[in-house]
Amino acid sequence: MTLLTHCRLALATIALTSVTIAPASPSRVSSSGPQPLAESSGAAPEDKSPGSDDSLVDLVRVFACQFDDASWDINYDSWPDRWTRVYDDEHPQYARIAIVPADDKATSGKVLLIQPDGAGATAISPPIHVMPKFSYKLRMRARIKGVEHGAVRVRMAFHNNRDIKKQVEQSDPLPSDGRWRDIEMGDYQPEDGEVDRVYLHLDYARGERGDLNAEIQIADVRLYRLPSIRIHTDSLYNVYTNVEDVEVTCSLSGILEQNPEVRFQLLDATNKSIGEGGKVNLDGQIISESVAHASDIVDGFGTDKSSYEGSKAWKPPIKDYGFYRVRVGMYRTGTDVPIGETRAISVAVVRDALVTSERGEFGWTLPKADRPLPFSVLQELLPRVGVRKVKLPVWFVPGDEQRGESIMKFAEQLAARGIETIGILEDPSLVIADPRTQKESPPIEGFLSGEPSYWLPQIDHIITRLSLRIRWWQLGRDGDTSFVGYDRLVERIGAIRNQLFRFGQDVRMGIGWRWDHPRDKGKSLSWDFEQLAGREALDAAGLESAFDKARPSSAERWVVVAPPEVDMTPPEGADPDDPNDPLMRAAFVRRHQERVRDFVKQILVAKMNGADGIFISNPFSGSPDMADGQTGVMNTDGSPGELLLPWRTCARLLGGAKYLGSIRLPHGSNNWIFKRTDGQVVMVLWNLEAPTTESNDTPVEETLYLGENVQVIDVWGDDKRPEQRDGRQVIRVGQMPLFVYGLHEGIARWRMEMGFESKQVASVFGVQQQNALLLHNTFGQGVGGTVRVFVPEQGVGDESMSEVSSSSWNVSMDDPRLSMKTNESLKAPLTIGLDDASFGPQIVRCEFEISAERDYKFSVWRELFVGLDNISLEVETFLTPEGALVVEQRMTNTGELPVDLKCTLHASNSHRRPKRAQVFQLESDVDKKRYKYINADDLIGKTMRLQVEETAGQRELIYRFKVEPKLLDDSEEATLTQAL
User: Could you give the CA distance from residue 822 to residue 888 in angstroms, rounded to a whole number?
Assistant: First the structure.
């Protein structure tokens, strides 16, 4: 049977049965989607006439069917009156559907029993009147057992006044465990203004094998209407370029109170409230329940509750570019009693003038193509947020020229905006069976492993229609690595390629590949790119490790970056219901910073390793409400997510850029430097040592000359000129990513390449040690100038910026003058002498005055390590409950010969006498020495000096440390006391 014949039969079945196989208009995503609520062991609630529900005042019952009520079986034929069932080849008459007495104590009265006997079975309620101004929630009780191969689902099918199906919502398969469960679906709002009725479908669909012993029991079916609360803006995707344009509207419909109070609240990305919230009264208008077009509907009328509708707009007090949430709650007038749940909407304000890249490797995969946003909206959104590549599934039913044309037109519109489209070829079998399926397609290898005569007719119309516009094709969805591991894979993929593109189209084709899998040696690949994947999503550390272990490939390497997992566990001792709880605030800030930083670091790792494509596999995965714990680049409702602006800033600034390296900044901030295709140099940096109370605190100042036209751009895309101080830029760095744009390339490379011949300085006092400065001319022309090398004085505040040379160091150069040709390397000798210099790493500052096309003055920072060869030293301080201070030194020797050492501990600025210890024959085993001070209050926070001298040599080590002791518990004190 050909695919076209198969589809025609499927469409014929749809027409005959009116079940939910027909394609529906895209439905909105609800956070309270279909789900089993809980197990139930009690009897079913007593039947009531339509009206308000006793437990939830805001719900109004519009339909109730309890099958033990005689009014539902007036003629005693064991079939619920006005209900219908489906009859066709898949739903035969012998499948039993009937009202029967309940057979256990878990529910009383009668139930609707479905025994499909290996076939399919569907029961459909009478039409129930609904209105697009309300939302609807379905509740029922169900017991399912014996279902192994098929699936039981509940559907809500909304029809218009001509009884044409316009919208379908369905549950996930209900569990088959033989227990009574309370089932809830909703809330759902009719999307078409003509909808006036809904049908409830109780459906068992058989699988590849029928379930002969399947049994479904249904009881107490109830449909409620509830207020429809819609929070929206005038933007199709809530992304703005002007803070003045943002306006949020709350539209309410179906509320039971005429003038409730609507409260607006603006929140930043960490859930911190910004400015004063808004409070307005709705002034609702009564909703008239017209029945002019519903003469054939019996149910859903006659409630005694008047309902109201109205809307109010609010301009949030947004001052800067960034990501925001607006939370909206509705309350009874003059009280704090909420009506319904609080809703949230997310908004992003982006700087439209942010510098961008003409090309780049940043892309999105749209697994649902034009859902939740249609192609017409996506073509405007994608270029605005830095997307340069788009993957989307391109299968459509043969003969559906309208769908083929919409995909073609979308690809053309993207191409006009400089965006490449990659068509994803998937196994279409599930879509053919159920056009509304939400399941992932089967692995592509299984589909293409058969004879071309089987699979080619199912996708040939796609290649023929789209290959003239779409030049890039991927076999299988992201994460599908089903081809990996097969023998003669190069030949196999080559044969598939020749079948697909047999008319010589100029295309590029790729497959999924596992990070750790080898390739056929010595063979040219028959694919052009590899979409790399692991068994689970990788964070930045995992991605870095994967690159380190990845096998080389001649194909392009495309990688996936993913929003990191969110740990929503409240901190110990915090009150999760109090938004002002300091522990919760700190947790919100920390989580936000970690998510943004890890996401940006994933992008940096991909860039550093030369990834040719950087994709987000499902950008529409987040939630506008932080309480849901879902974060993403976009949200499931099509609004911006928490990570959209970090993605956009990276994509615009780093698209197509090449990694150069990093430099040593005065305060040690982590940094990564890239060169863009336009020649501009960008540095990304943050500082994990920076203390912070809010997400954008920047308490560390990196002060250095970077260039003449430097801009500082935060992760939200806002830019500013940095403060100038003594001819240097002041870059204020916190724990959030920061982008510095416009670095002087020659100076940046000079800083990266300068070094010392030896980074180790022997701890020998009064002896001149030889070293050398290693330089390379990175200015692109001959240069001259001078250099001054010195160790800044300690204890003067900002030591890295001190102009005063330390008296403990004497660094001299025979000739500080420099003269270097283009691209020349130079070794400048220098001499180092120590006098009471401290053990460990020591920052060294090199001041250059360089004459190139103009004069430059800049500094380079490096570290030299002072120590005894092969000897390590660690010091830790402890405080006992009685107030005694214990200083513990730990030493090891990795050299070939053992050494003897004399140790003297001085309490600086104290009347206390020095304490001494002797270390004999120190080898690789750790040697511990402990010093104890009684009544040590005067020592806390002070600096102590440990002097270590080699007994049979000239080497001497000075180690200074600040007393910041750890408090011991009783058991730790007992152990330490015994050791002392």
Answer: 53
472 bridge partner residues = 422, 508
Burial class (CB in 10 A: 0-12, 13-18, 19+), 797: exposed
The parent domain of residue 706 ranges over 658-743
**Whole-prediction pTM value?**
0.85
- Intervals of the chain under pLDDT 50: 1-56, 291-292
- Residues 415 and 268 grouped into a single domain: no
The whole-number pLDDT of residue 25 equals 30
Cβ atoms 557, 614 nearer than 8 A: no
Residue 941: how many other CB atoms lie within 10 Å = 10
Q: What is the pLDDT of residue 12?
A: 32
**For residue 628, what is the DSSP state?**
G
Domain at 964, CATH number = 2.60.40.10
Q: For residue 311, is it within any domain?
A: yes
Is 357 domain-assigned? no
The domain total for the chain is 6
Instruction: Give residue-wise pLDDT tens across range 722-778.
Output: 999 999 999 999 999 999 999 999 999 999 999 999 999 999 998 999 999 999 999
- Domain termination residue (choose one: 226, 254, 281): 226
Q: Alpha-carbon distance 289 to 254, whole Å?
A: 11
Tokens 């398969």 — which residue?
173
CATH of the domain at 685: 2.60.40
**Distance of alpha carbon 478 from alpha carbon 615, whole angstroms:** 9
Helix (H) or strand (E) holding 221: strand 215-226
Q: Are residues 260 and 171 in the same domain?
A: no
What's the CA gap between 845 and 788, in Å, rounded? 8
Burial 849-864 (b: 16+ CB within 10 A, else e): ebebeeebebbbbbeb
Residue linked to tokens 């002034």: 283
CATH number at residue 767: 2.60.40.2310
By the 8 A CB rule, do 507 and 474 touch? Answer: no
